[in-house]
Design brief:
single chain, 144 residues, mainly beta, four-stranded antiparallel sheet
Length: 144
C-alpha cells in the first residue's frame, strides 16, 4: 500500500519550511538529531526539513493544536516553543523543565510537556491494591 502523497510532504505550524517524511536511523555519533516537539532522539519515521536541522517524529507532527485537559478549565494551546524569555518551562505535571513543544494555558500559566499532557488519569498497578490517580498538585498539601 502506497503512502498518500499528502503525507510525504507537510507544512507544520511549528516550522516555516515544508517537512518531508523519511525513514531515519540515528548515526552512532555524538551529533544526534532530536525531535523539536518531544526533544527525544529522532529515529524511525520522521518529518525533516531539507533546508535546516529540524525534525519531528511522525506522531509528534499530529498532536492537536488545541485541546481540553482535566487539569485546567480553559483550552490548552500547543506552542512550538516555551512562552517564557528564558526558553524553558516547568511542567505542572512532572515538575521538570522542558524546552520543546508545550501545552500552555495563557490565563492560568499552566504548562505541560506533550507526553505529560496525554498521560492516563488513572492506572492500576500490581504494586498497590487501589487505582493510582494522576494529580497536578500534591494531595498532601504543604507536607510533601
Amino acid at each position: 500500500m502506497e503512502k498518500p502523497e499528502a503525507e510525504l510532504l507537510i507544512n507544520h505550524f511549528s516550522h516555516p519550511h515544508p517537512l518531508k517524511l523519511v525513514s531515519f536511523k540515528p548515526p552512532s555519533t555524538l551529533n544526534r538529531l532530536t525531535c523539536s516537539a518531544c526533544t527525544k532522539q529522532a529515529s524511525g519515521v520522521i518529518y525533516t526539513c531539507d533546508s535546516c536541522n529540524y525534525c519531528l517524529h511522525k506522531p509528534c507532527s499530529k498532536m492537536p493544536q488545541h485541546f481540553k485537559h482535566e487539569a485546567d478549565s480553559h483550552t490548552l494551546s500547543l506552542l512550538a516553543a516555551p512562552p517564557y524569555p528564558e526558553g524553558a518551562f516547568e511542567c505542572n505535571a512532572c515538575g521538570t523543565k522542558g524546552t520543546g513543544f508545550c501545552y500552555h494555558c495563557e490565563n492560568c500559566h499552566l504548562d505541560l510537556h506533550t507526553v505529560c499532557a496525554f498521560l492516563r488519569s488513572s492506572v492500576k498497578s500490581n504494586a498497590h491494591k487501589h487505582a493510582l490517580n494522576l494529580c497536578f498538585e500534591s494531595p498532601y498539601g504543604d507536607k510533601a
